Amino acid sequence: MKKGDLVSVINEDMKGEIMSVHGDEVIVQDEFGFTHRYKKSDLLPRDEQFYHNLKVEKKIEKERVKTSKKHNKNHLILDLHFEKLVDNPTDYIGFERLFIQKQKLLDTLEFCREHRLKKMEIIHGLGEGTVQTMVINALQDQVDLEFHHLEILQQQSGNIMVYFK
Questions:
Q1: How far is residue 162's CA from residue 155's CA, in Å, rounded to a whole number?
Q2: What CATH number should be reported for the domain holding residue 147?
Q3: pTM, whole model, 2 decimals?
Q4: How far apart are CA 135 and CA 159, in angstroms?
Q5: Are residues 30 and 82 in the same domain?
Q6: In terms of DSSP bridges, do strands 43-45 and 6-9 run parallel, antiparallel, or are they unpaired?
Q7: Beta sheet of 145-148, edge-to-edge order
Q8: Could you tell me the CA-to-CA distances from 78 to 11, 85, 126 in Å, in that order?
Q9: How confident is the model at residue 72 (pLDDT cuts 50, 70, 90)?
Q10: Which structural domain, as residue segments, surrounds residue 14?
């Protein structure tokens, strides 16, 4: 390093010209005319021609899958038909049935969140629409999820798709 060399400062956004060298200490004038004192070890020479002779090699990268393997699985299906939830469905009255179905729905939503599943299908079935209304109300109370349900198909569709964010 000698007087007149162009340098850049390590760990700072500053460049300038060497004004004088005194042992290990260098005085640098920045681009605005201010002088600064630095150790030689804090400076790098700026050679504009240094990078012009280097060849850039392009490496071919393998295409990577952006989603994890567990998210490529088939989605979770929750069937809320009461016969599939309990052993003796005739032992329960209507209110108890609806409560058990709702509890199963909430437990399954929590399971999906804990295991970071991305989508779930809820089969509520056709009928009078009591279970369907309960499912829609329960989903509307949840956060960080979207569900697809078309009101025009309310009596024709027996399932709802849920997507977790």
A1: 19
A2: 3.30.1370.110
A3: 0.53
A4: 10
A5: no
A6: antiparallel
A7: 76-79, 119-123, 159-164, 145-148
A8: 57, 10, 15
A9: low
A10: 6-45
